[in-house]
Amino acid sequence: SMPAGSDERFVNSSSKLVIAAIAVGGLIVPWLALGQPADEQLLEMLDVGFRVLFTVLVAVVVPVYLVKYGATNFLWFSDIGLLGLCAALWLEHRLLGSMMALAVLLPEALWLASFITGAIAKGRGTTTLATYMFDSRISLFMRALSGAFHFALPPAALWLVYRYGYDERAFVAQTILAWVVLPATLWLAPPAKNVNWVRGFGHPPRRRLPLAVHFGLVMLGFPLLFYLPTHWLLVQYFGGCS
Fold first, then answer.
1. What does the angle CA 7 – CA 129 – CA 225 come to, to the nearest 5 degrees?
2. Average of pLDDT values for 210-219?
3. Worst-scoring range by mean pLDDT, 125-129, 167-171, 220-224?
4. Quick one: which H or E segment has residue 143?
5. pLDDT category, 21, cuts 50, 70, 90?
6. How do residues 66-78 score in pLDDT, each as one tens digit?
7. What is the pLDDT of residues 142-200, one digit of tens each?
8. Whether 112 contacts 22, CB under 8 Å
9. 125 three-class SS
10. I need a labelling partner for 156 at 20 to 30 A (CA). Which of 18, 88, 133, 147 fits?
11. Rounded-to-integer distance, Cα 47 and Cα 160, Å
């Protein structure tokens, strides 16, 4: 068993890291997006470094998650985002990177809010998305890996749309992808995991409506509540192109 207080130290250290990184990112990203173009050689070096580090993360996460959680865990949009962003980084693919930005930016902001507020309120966050990060029954390694995974997604998505531009076709393309993934999730994923919230809200899933109605609202909710606002912001800050 872990020494008493080790979980609390992990939570405090992790929350400080996340808050500091958000603050730094909040200063850097607007400067990159709105400031003068950076030196191309520097951008290329950053690009390669970002690709390598992100690929190392993927190379660790994928086999560990396959063994620990099974293949259906990769139906989560965050896991799809992890793989899609890695591919977009290496392929320099504007549309794929834009799609993954729509898929992860707002949901991961919710995850980070859940984690930070959970760290402050000793596990009682604004949502249950990151509650497992404070569960001592889950190994410290798995929680640290999950934290690194979720924290890496927003910077990778923002880097891609900054570096290669935002493709306005992403809204329709990501909506179509979601409408394929969500029925597959309902059919294939274990009900208890409530992947992509298709069976209710929270963990364990809770819903007040029949499953069919809830699922229909989820199918509409992802494009309207997550993708559309993100699409509008990315067009404003990174310029739309098709």
1. 155
2. 95
3. 125-129
4. helix 140-164
5. very low
6. 999 999 999 999 9
7. 999 999 999 999 999 999 999 899 999 999 999 999 999 999 999 999 998 899 999 98
8. yes
9. coil
10. 133
11. 9
- Rounded to whole angstroms, how far apart are CA atoms 29 and 44? 17
| Three-class SS state of 168 | coil
Q: What is the mean pLDDT of the chain?
A: 84
Gap between the Cα atoms of 36 and 134, Å rounded: 42
The DSSP call for residue 36 is: P
Structure tokens at 24: 């730094």
**In this structure, how many other beta carbons lie within 10 angstroms of the beta carbon of residue 44?**
11
The amino acid occupying position 8 is E
Contact call for residues 128 and 202 (beta carbons, < 8 A): yes
CB 98 within 8 A of CB 156: no
CA distances from 137 to 133, 143, 148, 168, 225 (A): 10, 10, 19, 43, 33
If one counts every other C-beta atom within 10 angstroms of the C-beta of residue 73, the result is: 16
